[in-house]
Design brief:
Chains A, B: Residues 203-303 form the Peptidase M20 dimerisation domain. 2 copies of one chain form a homodimer. Chain A has 12 helices and 17 strands. By secondary structure, chain A is α+β, with helices and mostly antiparallel strands. In chain A, strands 3, 4, 5, 6, 7, 8, 15, 16 and 17 form a 9-stranded mixed sheet that branches. Chain A has a 4-stranded antiparallel sheet with strand order 11-13-9-14, with helices on one face. In chain A, strands 1-2 form a two-stranded antiparallel ribbon.
Amino acid sequence: MPLSPPAIDGARLLADLHRLRAFGAYRTGVHRPTFSPVDMEARHWLAGRMREAGLAVEIDGIGNVIGRASGDGPRLLLGSHIETQPQAGWLDGALGVIIGLEIARALGGGVDVAAWADEEGHYGSFLGSRSFIGDVTEADIDAARNRYDGIPLREALAAAGLAGRPRAAVEPGRYLGYLEAHIEQGDELEAKGLRIGVVTSIVGIWQYRVTFEGQQNHAGTTRMAIRRDAGAALVRLAAAIERDFPGICDPRSVWTVGRITLDPGAASIIPGGAEMLFQFRDADPEVLARLERRLQELVADANAGPCRAVLHTISRSIPKVMEPRFQDALEGAATRLAPALHQRMPSGAGHDAQQLARVMPAGMLFVPSIGGISHHWSEDTAEPDIVLGCQVMAHAVADLLDAG
Amino acid sequence: MPLSPPAIDGARLLADLHRLRAFGAYRTGVHRPTFSPVDMEARHWLAGRMREAGLAVEIDGIGNVIGRASGDGPRLLLGSHIETQPQAGWLDGALGVIIGLEIARALGGGVDVAAWADEEGHYGSFLGSRSFIGDVTEADIDAARNRYDGIPLREALAAAGLAGRPRAAVEPGRYLGYLEAHIEQGDELEAKGLRIGVVTSIVGIWQYRVTFEGQQNHAGTTRMAIRRDAGAALVRLAAAIERDFPGICDPRSVWTVGRITLDPGAASIIPGGAEMLFQFRDADPEVLARLERRLQELVADANAGPCRAVLHTISRSIPKVMEPRFQDALEGAATRLAPALHQRMPSGAGHDAQQLARVMPAGMLFVPSIGGISHHWSEDTAEPDIVLGCQVMAHAVADLLDAG
């Protein structure tokens, strides 16, 4: 198939991705926390590249980098994010921003490009894209702190030179919709030998903290029979989840105990307190509700033991369905450029697209992740897959703009 | 029964215990870490009380406070420790030291008293009593650091005013043996309505670190089937221990998972690493060996899963049998002063007596712990039980000195 329309420049795309990778390079990955000096350097570099592409660029009061095309006519918004998880990969986020930039360059109009600040949640949850759709108040910003070092968001914004800048807001009617390219971050495409994923929906993520209260005591002198060991109660709940969830989940459901803390955490002291962070994800609200019911039952069972267990809900995000017309456009382009090497699939990760989808039609395209690895410095995607992903997205964008 | 011989002064004993409790008071307990300013204040106060009792006092180069009686004849060494665990109880250690002091006062000779430094292991393991028996080198001291804040032991000794002081060493032939009074730290005496425990042996403590290596990955996009979740592997091992140990242990065996760490410990990241601290205790070397064999088998089983599990041995202490003649003396005194309210029993906790037992005969006496609670600020013992414990120990000391 010819690459035109539109003629994207694969070498230019890859060169920009590798340049961006150098900001905060860590082994073969990147360490670029939101609003760190190196993150701000990267945002200013990106703004410069957008300007060279003929876009009118703004870095707004929450750190979003937005490049707007001049001219009238139908318009699409393309984007993702550029900060990273700690010691993480070079493509998670960066790929979608630079693909957006390349398509804006290739089409010469009709495409705005955005790098949403803090998708990775150093200070909050989807701060930049939620600010853009009007879902972040000044009070939210006052209250937010860095999850790793506790620095207030206000202080970080001031240090980044962003204090007092206005925050950009979505202009009603400006866009046909939003499109985001992203690495899959799983191994499904690779395992099936496919090169393109057309995202059907973004899963809901339900997150919990479970706390256990027992009795701290001496680990040598307290008989097993009278112990109220909060750590042992936690292990029993975690084991019960592993026993029960496989029987009631959907094939694509996932669940994770991400953190366990025992208090006081010493070799010779029976833990008097314990806490675990637990989450599960699925694209089906009924499956999410079923998993939560079982979790509630297991916590109730735990309370029949010697320790008190309490289930605290942290968040429950609703699965977001991607615009069918955008899915069709992406699939159509994939069929032309990579026949039989694509599939429709849900996204197991959260993305800025789920926020934009609250105010406009949205779609997403995945490229394969080598070994399914992400949120780790060794994350990678084959360069031909990156270029193909950009080509498919560019064709879909051109088709959607043509259709108007 | 008459209290004499010897005439201990219960009010004086309790007054000294309550005075010592005021150094680092925390709620109804005490926070007095080894070599902290308040711990050193307490050591100097104790040295003063020993001098008032007619003992020749030394605070040695490792912080041991040793009071020596003048005169010839048979001699016993009585002691324990005075520093505490963090935010812990007022009697763990302090009881044995002040009972020793009271008996030295009551007998007026034949009794040396020691407060061994750092039994609670802020910087090491039984530093003071091991130094006294010649089991701590200068290189050990150079290498030791505070387990909570990492401060080098050398620095702490200098700040405490102990740098350059000689370390006291056991004088061969000076003692018939060593005796230590201590709170039980368990609930066995209380549960049986008893008031005195005669210790038969101090259990062996076998401690391990188990590390798990998996693959850090994204908690949303990585299918359950391909995960190498180090935290899940840890939970499986901990649950298998809970399943198997009850079937192969002795009635008094205890085991504890004191700490669990998942790496990196974030809600949306599959742990790539995990670690647990695990220990078990028993008075029987064969039981200890049997529990270790099962632990080794379970770790081997874990290695059949997707993560690599490694068992690191931290320490394996050998159970120490208490001198039968000392047990008889303590039981004889208990039979006179608290008929049918005493029993022989092993100690589930480690004590300085197990170090002294390596170079001389040793014995221990327990008084009940209310609710079996220890290593917590709410630790307590009824005052009549404290006084009775001192009386029993004093009678046994007098009998042993008489026998020579």
